[in-house]
Amino acid sequence: MKKAHDQFEQVQSVMDYIDEHIDEDLTLEKLAAQSNYSPFHFHRVFTQIAGETPASYVKRVRMERAAHLLIYEPDIPVTDIALQCGFTSLSYFTQAFKQMYHVSPKAWREGEYLKKFPLAYEDSKISKQMSRKPQEYPISNPYNQFQWVDLSRVKIIEIPSFSYVWKQHIGNYTEEVYESWEEVFRWVKAREYDGPDGYYFGYPRNNPFITPEGKCRYDCCIRVKESVEGATTFNGGKFAVYEFENPLSYDQRNHIIHCYTEMYSIWLPKSGFRFVGNPVEFVEILPIPNSLHIQTHITGIAIPIEPK
Fold this sequence. Notes:
Elements: H1 2-20, H2 28-35, H3 39-50, H4 54-72, H5 78-84, H6 90-101, H7 105-109, H8 127-130, E1 155-159, E2 162-170, H9 177-191, E3 200-204, E4 217-224, E5 232-234, E6 237-248, H10 253-271, E7 273-275, E8 280-287, E9 294-307
Antiparallel strand pairs: 1-6, 2-4, 2-5, 3-4, 3-8, 6-9, 7-9, 8-9
Helix pairs in contact: 1-2, 2-3
């Protein structure tokens, strides 16, 4: 069991390395060096754990990063996005993008991506085509005509650095996440590693509209004392935060997705900021009386930002 756990940790560390160096030349030898395995052994272990080869994983992550940037960074030229995501030529990037998403990068940016999203927004060129009865929705909200989220409640805060431990869930971001939360929660409680504030947060690694459900990664994280060996450091920084009026369960993922969509598509372009990493979700954990189980709810979402 320990060997399998160590291999999983090594593969996760390489995945994190890929995320942070996606614009570089990520050869098999370079990735294997991050794991301390030989290229042959690394390829076998990575493929077994990730369900795809290192090369396939790198290409998919690059494509997903590009798809995300094309939507939420409209001022960055397509060529620059291709280079930022590790593609050496625009022609190869365009060909690969069409193979994965069945449209060109330009068409995706201009609105084709909305076919994967649950709502159409007024800033989109095709929103009028997709919203047949916009008059049914009030339009008093200055950000969008649907009013799913009161974006005037978004706050800018500084989150300090701290240590945390985590358990990763792979799959959809709904009810299956509970098991991972229970596992890491019991592990921390049994060792009395948690700090006095009971700080819990979820770290969704992927956009579930862009990444296949079975490939989505979600880290269940608990802040711990700085002295805990092997803990990971959360770097902190400036975040745009939206707190829900009532905590939401993971089963209410559709509403959480609406909040993300509106913050990225509507609030962010008007804010003077740009996003600089994956969002985090603030979580509350409540032990169920007379039970070994817990209740988990999401109390808010936060997007790491910096001035444009």
